[in-house]
Request: fold
Amino acid sequence: MKVLYLIILLINTLYINGFSEYADYDDRTLTLHGQIINLHKHHISIEPGSHLIIELHDISVTDQLSTKIAQQTINAYVFPITFSVNYEPNEVVHNHLYVLYASIVNNRNEVTFSSERRNEVKLLGPGRTTFVDVPVIGVATSDKDVTTYVKLQEWPELLGRRGEEAVRIIKRQTGLEEVFVVTKDTHVSKDLRYDRVCVYVDDYGIVSQIPRNG
Reply:
């Protein structure tokens, strides 16, 4: 009987400390604050008429497009850019993985800056993320300024090469760290990231799709 009592007490404690805090958010909107910073060693100005787009995504389901749960769009003038994005707690699933993406688009709807890395955030519970710094990198929309922008690239010449060899070549050419071989059994989130290159290979380890960053 004493053991049963202790088990019941433990379950109640876990509920109070682990799950009940999520119920407190059910009836109110939460806000994630932050700032967009440009860490590039070269100074790159934001084009006049540009907008900053902030998105919160659930990327928990691998090999599927991420689910957007919130978005904010504001005018973008100079770095750093402060933002506040609201989201509904009832759209947040406990233990799911959430990330924040930022992009700056010009008046021609071209992406000129994008998140430098995946910015994971905790949206509910103890340790909830309330403020986040979001580094961005410049994205080239043409061949101009390729020395100061991260150029959108693809490597058709690597089709038919060994996957590991392709990874080494891309890392050497770009300086990117997140370049890796992807097999049919590899789980990859479908979020758009310009700092990443997935090298898809067949059952024999041969590159089967044109590698691209994004």
About this structure: The CA atoms of residues 69 and 213 lie 25 Å apart. The longest helix spans residues 2-23.
